[in-house]
Structure formats: structure tokens, C-alpha cells
Amino acid sequence: YVKHAYLINNCYPVREGDKGPKSSELSYLTFYASSRPAKLTKVGNYLERKVTRDIWKGRKK
């Protein structure tokens, strides 16, 4: 498992009633991506695929 995918998946809320991303996990993902410029492209690509897949499946998270 790749670290950027793990960090992105941790930002999503676990319960259906939760709104928005988890702030501490999102802060760490931001730090991770900004301190490792080579990983920024991978983070962006993975996030784009995940959001596209979630929209296509009709997920509201």
C-alpha cells in the first residue's frame, strides 16, 4: 500500500453523518505533499481518480 493513498483515505469521514474531511489527517496530508514535491503529482492523480470514482458511484462522502 502506498503512503499517499493511505493518507488520502484517512481524510474521508468514517460515519455517514460526519461532514467534511478530518482536519488533523488533512493537515498531515497537506504537510506530506508540500514537503515532498515529487509526491505531489501522485497525490493529485490518486485524489482525482478517487473523486471521479466516488462521483460515478454516487457516493456523498
TrEMBL record:
InterPro entries: EFR3, EFR3_HEAT-like_rpt. It comes from the Eukaryota. Pfam families: EFR3. GO terms for biological process: protein localization to plasma membrane. Belongs to the EFR3 family. This is Uncharacterized protein. It comes from Jimgerdemannia flammicorona.
